[in-house]
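Quick one:
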Amino acid sequence: MKKLILTGLFFALLCPFTFANEMTEDYFDIATNYCIDGNYSEALNYLDKILLVEPENKTVADLKNGLRQIIQGKNTSFILPKSNAVKQAVNYKKSGNKQGELTALTAANDYWAYYFLAQYYRQNKDYNQAINYFVKSVNAKPSFNQCYLEIAVCYFELGNFQQAVTYLNQYLKINPQDDFAYALKARCEANLDNNDDALSDILTAIALENSVDNRFLEGKILYNMKRYQQAKDKLEKLTSDIQTAEIYKYIGLCYDGLGNYNEALNNLDKSILLFDDDKTVNSKYNEIKAKIGK
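Output:
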């Protein structure tokens, strides 16, 4: 379970979702209100009621898992706010009044208001403003170290991978069991061409959470390191869970690196069938075909 889902749980509960009927929507509103009051157990009960009606609702299932971990004390850095400004903003958000939500948060000067204002800007992809308010939040409450992870995510989205790593290191000193943070750090290191560090980080993430996403990232990093056989073996094992253009692209590139051009073409062809607008894949496919034709 990604830790951003856990630590952003309250904010996620405020976002608009589409439900199959009015009853499940009502249940969701009740769950939100219980979360505002800090009554996690009752919120969990109402999320369970939604899942009885909509068992395939992944968003609600993720929120339920997040609440369960908070109840079990596995994530103690995120505590629901008592800020009146945030409660006001919640009411504005639920009524669809974006300006009211923004005004309520901007008028306040407590760390929770800063935090949710940062989340507001992050949701609107204004990452520089988001960083500004996450910094204000952690300055107002230095123990609120979750902000370091949030700042790192914003820097990652801006493509400033070195700054992201700086904040991730700061966060991981305090939260060394967070697989999401290690996986994000691995992505940053890979983008900086620090592949040895990237591999070390993703292996730590896998040790903490042996997820498909983490193992997929491991395969991509191994490919970047030109360890084609290892990368191919790991990626092919994931195709029972992942059938995307990206995974077949990397498998095809691994086969190309190994000199097995027929299998490279087979996998690149699958990638193109799933998504035909990747210029890298199309170029590599044509290059290999020309090579075989010589």
